[in-house]
Design brief:
The complex is a heterodimer. Chain A is about 45% helix and about 10% strand. By secondary structure, chain A is an alpha+beta fold. In chain B, about 50% of the residues are buried. Chain B is mainly α. The chains are: A alpha+beta, B mainly alpha.
């Protein structure tokens, strides 16, 4: 009995299995390139490809009751704007679509085109014949409509997922200047750039990176301004990236940068659209990655890392002063502890005698040599800083106060560190915060430690040894063919005007020649500046503000 | 994958247009090679025979150096985009038998290589002596020499483009503080130490003093190697001359300041007169009480550009002479050699000065006499690469059109 039943069941199973296999074979016979006219097969193929995903919504309906024309709508829940699908797609196809019998031109094989022309009141609709396209569209948040006995499918753009609105920049704040920042959505970001540069020559090239994540990457430049060789090189390097997925511009940065071992960043990033737009006008290439609010700017040179967009919005004297202050503070962030070490342990004769006495009095109770003292303080301030970054907003400053004020004060009173050391460490930290770009500041923070060791070994000689090594390294660096130390070496007067100092805008008559092709469109002096500069061969066109 | 990508870009860069030294970089290359340890003893050596007319000796030496630069320029302009090695091969050999040139070039180029190596070693030693006596009293001199030569080793692994850039950047760092220091050294200057200004009796003494002064002007011969990346033009040649005048002016300022503040009798007794000069400076506002550590740490850069360029040229010429492709081991071997020479050759500081003088004479031979001889040879044999090149270029444009 049991045996019989088993055989019977197995027969049924075998039949079932045969049926299944046939269906599977049919589905497999569908190549990814072509839609089959059979609706079920297409739907089954998509379902199978997506592994019967639970967030795949499949809605079957009849769009022409008279002829019983069936259609299937597919979308992925959560990536789409459901209101749009209800109001604009389903409503129009189910309620307002003209009866196909009234239109003599209607053919079933051309049904998709018919719907495109008469049925869908939406602008972003396209036809496709390949299944792979459908999958891509589904996964990027579009809605797919498949029709019976029609070899074409409709892709309706209904992208709409939870996203932030355009907010203020978090890491690059300015006193004066626009307050919008890039967001996580690529299209919004490109629109922010388009809004600033209404130039038909602005090119946005889309690429897909990531074998599995299929992330959209946009390479943006201005044709005729950017150097074609740089654009080509950028595209080639991005093409060569082979990675499963990428979620931030930083992935791309690490794959395409020239020197992976250098502590200095060779690609600038910004979340400010105004900065990115200004760099486009200089002839640089901007890379935007979907899902990341940071755009990459290539090629980049050293001086850019202490420039802030504000420098161009304020009057030139102010910005020149600010740049000097920033350069000074970054030098302090790099060298101050090592100078302290070398002065206090190797060259006390250089310090004015009154100060030397005060320092000696402060150091009298300190049991360690100054290098240990400095190292301990620098490491603890690094810990503090890292801790305050990780903590949620309101607690962060508290850590700063507890760490810097209370621990510092207590350490001085306990006689572990000297008061001068506390001042040095505080100045170093503040100095590194004055750097407008975070990654350049980190490079300096990192390099501070080897200098301290060298200073502890050789005093000022050691500091200089280190500086020479850094100079040699910087000279050897190139970012996409542009020497990293550009306005200084190779030296150009024109570049110097926008490096440590910033000359007035009306004097900036040309684009920086290292980045852009100058011969195509030369920037000309603005009409308003003619009175200021009598020998300017004036012109009527407006001066484009030049930024970096 | 990334490695592959990088290699590809490297290949792409390499196959691109070769690097060309800008006139400014040419200036910096010769100027920073010239400025080395010589200036540390210059006030003493220049006033040794010439008494208070040391500055006239410097002036004469500067003129001779300018003459040498003109020689080197017109020699290398005849061989565009060729280094010393290729120059010698072409000059000393015939077109039929190329091996003659190859063999005859060996002693000439080798003399340059040994000279560059020797000078690297002795400059490092000299600098080590100053540092050890003046600032890092407890540090063994071997460490200072070792680290200085290590910097040269580090530089020698890069290509000539980087060397030119490094010189350009470091020259800023050197010249600005040194100008400041040499100008503020006039604080204690007394005019009577320089009087009478025009010499009447001391003429032979001035001429004798010119020779040791000239030794601090050697270094422009590195341009014979960097000629590979030079595109000759009038601007380039003018900047080369500026490249000698700039250190010359600084030397003049320092020598005059030294003579004026100490007087030549006292200068003769000082081992490192320039350092004494720096010690005598009072900084306004008393930010720093003494400046010699600052001066010496700036001078690290000056010495490095001298040593580094010579070391680089030594390796470059040697490698090209024997067709060595591998990059790794040669600098290391030379490093050991230099280190040994620097430490063992001279027993003490007097020994060192003696050797330094002798090598200085060799330097005069190398940087003034040899280029002149080679230029004369080129003129006699009427070898001029420019014509060939311009003819070839003309053909190329003809074909293109």
């Amino acid at each position: 009995m049991g045996r019989l039943g088993r055989t019977r069941r197995s027969k049924e199973q075998r039949k079932q299995a045969l049926m299944d296999r046939r269906l599977e074979e049919k589905i497999e016979s569908l190549s990814a390139d072509h839609l089959s006219p059979a609706l079920e097969q297409n739907v089954a193929w998509i379902r199978q490809k997506l592994g019967n995903a639970s967030d795949l919504v499949v809605r079957e309906f009849i769009y022409d009751a008279d002829r019983e024309l069936r259609a299937t709508l597919l979308m992925i829940d959560g990536l789409t704007e459901s209101e749009r699908i209800h109001d604009d797609i389903l409503k129009s196809l189910l309620f307002t679509l003209q009866n196909t019998k009234q239109n003599a031109a209607f053919q079933e094989a051309e049904a998709a085109r018919y719907l495109l022309n008469y049925g869908l009141p939406l602008c972003e609709v396209r036809l496709t014949e390949t299944l792979r396209d459908l999958i891509d569209a589904l996964l990027s948040g579009d809605t797919v409509i498949l029709l019976e006995r029609c070899g074409e499918g409709l892709i309706v753009s209904t992208k709409g997922w939870a996203k932030r609105s355009v907010e203020e920049p978090k890491s690059e704040s300015v006193v004066r200047g626009p307050r919008d920042a890039f967001g996580e959505t690529l299209r919004v970001n490109t629109a922010l750039l388009r809004r600033r540069i209404k130039d038909p020559d602005m090119r946005i090239k889309s690429m897909k990176v990531g074998v599995r994540s299929n992330t959209d990457v946009a390479v943006i430049y201005i044709e005729g301004v950017a150097q074609p060789s740089v654009v080509e090189e950028v595209e080639r390097r991005i093409d060569e990236i082979k990675v499963d997925g990428l979620f931030e511009g930083g992935y791309i940065e690490q794959y395409i940068e020239d020197n992976h071992w250098s502590p200095f960043p060779q690609i600038q990033n910004t979340e400010r659209p105004d900065k990115a737009a200004a760099n486009l006008l200089e002839g640089k290439v901007v890379i935007l990655v979907d899902g990341s609010p940071y755009s990459l700017i290539v090629p980049s040179i050293l001086t850019q890392f202490y420039h802030s967009p504000e420098d161009y919005y304020e009057r030139f004297l102010i910005s020149t002063l600010l740049r000097f202050i920033r350069a000074l503070s970054m030098t302090m962030a790099l060298l101050l502890p090592s100078l302290y070490i070398s002065f206090s342990s190797f060259h006390p004769e250089m310090i004015p005698s009154k100060l030397v006495i005060a320092m000696a009095a402060g150091r009298a109770t300190v049991p360690f040599p100054s290098v240990i003292e400095a190292l301990a303080m620098e490491i603890s301030i690094e810990i503090l800083r890292e801790a305050s970054v990780r903590l949620p907003g309101p607690i962060g400053p508290t850590i700063g106060i507890v760490g810097a004020l209370i621990v510092g004060e207590a350490a001085v009173q306990a006689g572990i560190v000297s008061p001068i050391m506390v001042i040095v460490v505080a100045l170093t930290t503040i100095g590194s915060f004055a750097a407008p770009s975070y990654n350049a500041a980190i490079a300096l923070r990192m390099l501070r430690f080897p200098v301290m060791f060298l200073a502890a070994m050789f005093g000022l000689y050691g500091v200089m040894l280190f500086m020479i090594i850094i100079v040699v390294h910087l000279c050897s660096l190139k970012s996409f063919g542009v020497p990293y130390l550009t306005p200084f070496s190779p030296f150009t007067w024109q570049g110097l005007g926008d490096s440590m100092i910033r000359i007035p805008l009306y004097r900036m008559t040309k684009r920086p020649d290292v980045f852009s092709r100058d011969e195509e469109r030369e920037r000309v002096k603005s009409a308003s500046a003619e009175g200021v500069n009598p020998d300017g061969r004036g012109s009527k066109t407006e001066n484009e503000p030049k930024e970096s | 994958m990334v490695e592959e990508a990088r290699q590809k870009t490297n290949q792409k860069n390499r196959s691109g247009t070769p690097f060309i030294i800008t006139p400014g970089q040419g200036l910096c290359l010769s100027a920073s090679t010239l400025m080395g340890v010589g200036v540390l003893v210059l006030p003493r050596t220049s006033t040794k025979g010439a008494d208070q007319y040391g500055w006239i000796a410097v002036l004469i030496a500067m003129l001779i150096a300018v003459f040498a630069v003109i020689m080197i320029n017109s020699l290398s302009a005849r061989f565009p985009e060729k280094t010393l090695v290729e120059m010698c091969r072409e000059l000393l050999g015939s077109k039929k038998n190329r091996w003659v040139g190859k063999i005859l070039a060996v002693p000439v180029v080798l003399s340059y290589t040994t000279y560059w190596l020797l000078f690297t070693a002795f400059v490092a030693r000299m600098f080590g002596e100053v540092v050890v006596t003046a600032v890092l009293v407890k540090t063994p001199i071997e460490v200072i020499i070792g680290t200085m030569l290590f910097l040269c080793l580090f530089l020698s692994y890069y290509d000539s483009e980087v060397v030119a850039r490094v010189n350009q950047v470091l020259l800023f760092i050197i010249v600005v503080p040194v100008l400041f220091i040499s100008l503020s050294a006039y604080q204690g200057a007394k005019m009577e130490n320089l009087m009478p200004i025009l010499p009447r009796t001391q003429l032979t003494g001035i001429l004798i003093a010119t020779i040791p002064v000239l030794e601090s002007f050697v270094g422009m011969e590195v341009m014979l190697m960097f000629n590979r990346n030079v595109k000759h033009s009038k601007v380039m040649h003018r900047f080369q001359i500026y490249g000698v005048l700039l250190p010359g002016i600084i030397y003049l300022l320092i020598v005059i300041a030294g003579t004026m503040s100490f007087g030549y009798e006292e200068l003769a007794l000082q081992t490192w007169p320039t350092l004494e000069l720096v010690k005598s400076i009072n900084v306004p506002g008393l930010i720093l009480e003494r400046l010699e550590a600052v001066f010496l740490s700036v001078w690290v850069a000056a010495v490095f550009t001298t040593c580094g360029n010579w070391y680089y040229c030594a390796i470059w010429s040697f490698r090209q002479l024997f067709g060595i492709r591998k990059k790794r081991w040669l600098p290391l071997v030379f490093y050991v050699g230099c280190y040994w020479i620097a430490i063992k050759m001279a027993q003490n500081i007097f020994d060192l000065f003696w050797y330094f003088e002798k090598i200085g004479y060799l330097g005069l031979l190398i940087s003034v006499v040899f280029p002149s001889l080679l230029l004369m040879l080129a003129m006699i044999r009427k070898i001029d690469g420019r014509k060939l090149q311009s003819v070839a270029e003309g053909e190329a444009t003809h074909e293109a059109s």
